[in-house]
Amino acid sequence: MQLSSFIGVPLLHALGIGQSAKSPIEAAKIASGYWAVISFLAALIIILWLLRGVRDERGMRQLPLASSSMWAISGVFLALIAQSIAANIEWRLLGIEPGSENTRQIIDIIRLTPLLVIVASIIGPILEEIVFRKIIFGSLYEKYHFWPAALVSSLLFAIAHMEPEHLLLYTAMGLTFAFLYAKTGRILVPIFAHVTMNTFVIVVQILLADELEKMMRQAGLPLALWRLWL
Q1: Among 79, 125, 113, 112, which Cα is nearest to 228's?
Q2: What range does the record give for the signal peptide (predicted)?
Q3: How far is Cα 202 from Cα 197, in angstroms, rounded to an integer?
Q4: Distance between CA 48 and CA 227 in Å, rounded?
Q5: Where are the alpha helices (DSSP H) in 101-208?
Q6: What span, in angstroms and rounded, lies between the C-alpha atoms of 90 and 147?
Q7: How distant is the alpha carbon of residue 21 from its chain centre?
Q8: Minimal CA–CA distance to 228: which of 173, 157, 158?
Q9: Per-domain residue ranges for the chain?
């Protein structure tokens, strides 16, 4: 989908998308935002069509709906905790500055193209869970134990975010979502946790950014420390 932007973004430019922008850079961001919506939606439709009739479980025991619902809600907090622990390890032990350039760019584009919030908060997480948990983790889980399947799928999930400095952080998130899938046997559980977490991150980054930065300044902590990752 990222490679398709080399064709899609210029095409949208030619169709007049972004012409009202204040600068060429802003115009490019607007066009890329709309192209992301189109390409991610198309990818989701294609994947769902290809997977029609495929069993959701891969040798997994399904928990009852009530228990699965509890794990879905708990999974949001587990993912945020895993993210926080990994971010602190990166910062305190590895000297990696907190904050995500990838997330910052997405938030910037959302401010210019609000429709992109659908991709960042809903379509993107659904796609990632289907690809990295249902397909990759699920296929490996059928043949191997949890840890080999979870580590491989989570590392691929981390690499796909193209922020090698945050490999540990994204791997930790991937492991959390893999655990939720294996624990409940329902792909909707990690999907719910991932969608809710991303939505929370976007709300915090857009609506509460100024207040949080003010609090960090008063506490004398690095401003980037509060930032979350998509």
Answers
A1: 79
A2: none
A3: 9
A4: 33
A5: 101-112, 117-118, 124-128, 138-143, 146-160, 167-184, 188-207
A6: 22
A7: 28
A8: 173
A9: 1-54, 63-226
In order along the chain (230 residues), what is the average pLDDT of each group of 10 residues?
65 75 83 91 94 69 94 97 92 84 87 93 97 96 94 97 94 98 96 96 81 65 52
pTM: 0.88
Give me the amino acid identity at 226: W
Q: Residue 73: which of 180, 227, 198, 173 has the closest Cα? A: 180
Pairwise CA distance, residues 185 & 63, whole Å: 7
Distance separating alpha carbons of residues 36 and 42, to the nearest angstrom:
10
What was the pLDDT predicted at 48?
93
Q: Which residues are catalytic?
A: 128, 161
